[in-house]
Write the structure tokens for this entry.
Amino acid sequence: MNFTQPEFLILFSLFLPIYFMLRRRLRAQTLVLTIASYIFYAWFDWRFLGLLLLSTIVDFYFAIVIDYAKHSEKQPYPINVAKCTLWASVAYNLAVLGFFKYFDFFMGSLQVMLDRLGLHESLPILQIVLPAGISFYTFQSLSYVIDVYDGKLRATNRLADYAAYISFFPHLVSGPILRGAYLMPKIVHERKMSLPLALSGLQLALWGYFTKLVLADNMASIVNRIFLNPSPHGAGVIIATYAFAFQIYGDFMGYTNIARGISRMMGFELVLNFNLPYFAANPGDFWRRWHISLSSWLRDYLYIRLGGNRNGRLQTYRNLLITMILGGLWHGAAWNFIIWGAYHGVLLAIHRAFRDGKRALAAAAANQEGARLLNGLKIVCFFQLTCIGWLIFRARGFHDIVAKFKAVLLYTKLDDFWSPEAGQLLAFVVPFLAFEVYQYLTGDLEPWRRWPGAVRILWYVALLVLIAILVPEVQTPFIYFQF
């Protein structure tokens, strides 16, 4: 089940009144929330409910052991129990994630390498089915245990509360990734629910449905036609790459806004996951705007623990590269994701290396208008670098990356840009970008909340009408479901 299926809308409309009626009975409300979350997850594949429950139980007790060891006045053990338990949790979670997500990938890569060396050994390929959302709930579970170890929160002694934290259905399969220190207090304390909050959540969810169904799914038709073509011309690759930039953005931001909207209706305010990322002027700015919950997770739990920028430039560049390569691998078991992560790691390292020069260039702007023009040029230029990364991300392996770049570099016919695909791209992206410019200039991601009532009503009606008439016949699954 996903947010765009009628089944979800029906079940959520049945769940929300029951949930609201229990607003004064916190434990009963939490139990109903957990049951609804498990039903939601079982709709994808009920066979993996056991894995979700096992991960929940294992880390629930790991966190309790860590909490007891950290806060107990008596330390009867000759070893650091808290640290050993933390490493046991890390090992368990990474082993589960590694087996289901990466076993076949690494076995297949090793098989290719052995074949090229003339060692014709047959390695096992298990054709493992990837459990929905495993990357998200694994990172969320790890963050809870690490936060307990770091003293950012105390471990809960109620399994039902922890089960609700892990299985919270709005973000279970595609994020945002919520920290233990952020979400657990919202689970264990009474939630504030009101009609204005419910309406605000409904409005945000409606914007999410629009960006997914209208923007992302229409861009998907362009992307699939061109990227699945074994020999597209260069203009087609360029058009499809720009289309994919807005497909993945509209798709993932749409999911996040739906998740944040329905969570707000339930009394939860989820973290912001996207903040106009295509208005980023440099790599660091981009990762403060794109998939914020993942990039901040990688920064806090990986980059900083590797040493961050504390041990000189070379160590900083190494840590950036390792962090981004592992971030790319998190997205999927394929070489194009690893290359994409490495590409962004190199961009971050280059930006850090030349940051002082960029500051001097910005200071050289003689007036405010010059500074704005310079910033605009930076945004346009970095968007092109971002799209190069999206080409790598969307390709179907190393050979496809080479073929697509070769098609672009050898392309000479400008007439091919004037195609139906280009017209479709402009028709959907230009109005969307115009609205994002409005959001950027006003500094408000939900500007409709400030509009007069009549204008808001017209806005909602317009979104509903556009969804009704512009949704393509073939809808695509949310891209991040596969991660």
Observations:
- The CA atoms of residues 154 and 301 lie 18 Å apart.
- The chain has two domains: 6-191, 197-476.
- The chain has a mean pLDDT of 89.
